[in-house]
Amino acid sequence: MSNLAVTDKSERLPSIQAEAATIMSIIQQVAMSPEADIDKMERLMAMHERFQAQQAKQQYDDALSQMQEEMPVIGERGGIKDKNGRIQSTYALWEDINEMIKPVMAKYGFALTFRTPRNDRGIEVEGVLSHRAGHREETSILLPVDATGSKNGVQAVASSVSYGKRYTAGLLLNITTTGEDDDGNGPAAVTPRVTSAQAAQLAMLLEKCSDKAKAAFAGIHGKPTAVEKAVFDQVLAMLTKSAASNEAAQKAGEE
To answer: How many angstroms separate the CA atoms of 236 and 202, rounded?
Structure first.
């Protein structure tokens, strides 16, 4: 994020808070008056509530735009097979999505919840993305019971709910996954990535490495969250060695 964006936000929040305080001050003055007009009070309260809602929406939008810059790309480890057992298309498992997005959402004050209201037409899943400022956005999808394969009744419902969570979370957070569905024309490549905890571990070590090592890492992997799970141990060992070597070189230079 640029310094301009940070400055703009820091200047805007005190201004918003000052406006809210002014409105509340007017309401309090009217309320203390012995000739208080109830209709006027109600109009002022309605104006204050609208202003609060606008504040919350603005803070939600600001936080969402920042959060999306850090939202990880998630590998697709799930596969849909044809009758011959061949993978036709792939998808990201909900447990992978949930593990990767929760730390990022928490950092920016978001929470993602789901509801499954009764619906005679099928399985309805509602996703709700809430921000600590008070604003929330919702979306939903109506699905049939997933009776594919040899699932029993409970497993069929659970499968549909899991799909609904993936779908609504993707819409609300604009989640990107690797190995996008190719409409069943052939199997897409599935490349599992490191977990959020593993990515954080790599990032901490990378900060201790030299600029040359950082550039080499970026050229091969891009960023820590994009490291393939299969090479995690190898990358971890290399970064550990590189960080130790850089620290030793810095100490030698100080002497």
So the answer is: 6
> CB pairs under 8 A, 24+ apart, for 43-48?
47/23, 48/20, 48/23, 48/24
What angle do the packed helices 211-221 and 232-254 form, to 10 degrees? 160
202 Rama class: left (phi>0) / alpha (psi -120 to 50) / beta: alpha
Residue type, 125: V
How many Å apart are CA 198 and CA 183, to the nearest integer?
32
81-90 pLDDT per residue, tens: 766 777 777 8
Please list the residues that pair with 129 across neighbouring strands: 112, 137
- DSSP H or E run through 52: helix 38-68
**CA proximity to 78, closest of 86, 89, 67:** 89
Write down the pTM of the prediction. Answer: 0.56
**Tokens of residue 105, six digits:** 């959402």
- The predicted-structure confidence for 27-77, as pLDDT tens digits, reads as follows 666 667 666 677 777 777 787 788 888 889 999 999 999 999 889 888 888
Tokens standing for 25?
Answer: 């001050």
